[in-house]
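sorry for the late reply, my laptop died twice this morning and i had to redo everyting from scratch. anyway the thing you sent over, i finally got around to it. pasting the sequence first so we're on the same page, its 282 residues, then the predicted structure underneath. double check i copied it right bc i was rushing
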Amino acid sequence: MNVLLIGGSGQLGQEIRVRWTGHDVFAPSHAQAPIEDLARVEDWIERSQAAVVVNCAAFHNVDVCETQSDQAFAINALAVDRIAALCERRGIVFVTISTDYVFDGNANEPYSESDCTNPISCYGASKRAGESLVLRRSMKAFVVRTCGVYGRFASKSKGTFVDRIIKQAREGQAIRVVSDVVASPTYAGHLADALGKLVLTAEYGLYHACNNGPVSWFAFAQAVLQHAGIDYPIEAIAASDWKAAARRPVYSALSSAKLERVGIVMPSWTDGIAAYLQDVAR
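ok and here's the structure:
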């Protein structure tokens, strides 16, 4: 298939470009096809003769979204809806990526697709709006929520959570990680593989796709050092000790059971760490 990938320079987008070898993937840069410029996106749809459009673009700086809410909704909701409308008219499969931040974090077990959403940040609210606008349409669309994505194509200046934990340990820095926030950290390579299988199912709708198993960020950091062969202490802190402009859900692990029902099984979060470290070492 011909695939148009919007947001192809990010961690997930670049994994799709590397892993979807059975398809012709067109991945214009943000300058060439910004998600908010419908005319240029439409031009790329025509140029690529896309059968599938995958949207990995988002305004995802959670804290900045709090002060730039208009921009957050323009990109994460309205622009997504306009591209979905284009795909609907042309009979094109549309895939868009959403987030665990659509939930409030008051759960005590992984969220399923049928659980009620209740975002507690502007970012979460804008992503939920984007979901709703797509899912209201009668079209060939996949809305895929994921959580804590990290990948080998992260910005060199920032790195991933995994990179930072290893770097701090090797440099002898103090490592402090929240122990009362639970999520489903997901390796971008595993997510890209799952999406590649999902688009072939024609089982359209809302899905969760994460590395399996809830884990606190503290326990995740400990596992990172264990996989890296580093013996180094990590201090557990409370989420209340970590100050940020936007509220985050304290429990946002997602269940991928629906994905399994269409024959796609996500590896565990520990397998995600191992695969990531193996891939970055190549």
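Residues 105 and 249 are 4 Å apart (CA to CA).
thats about all i looked at so far, will dig more tmrw
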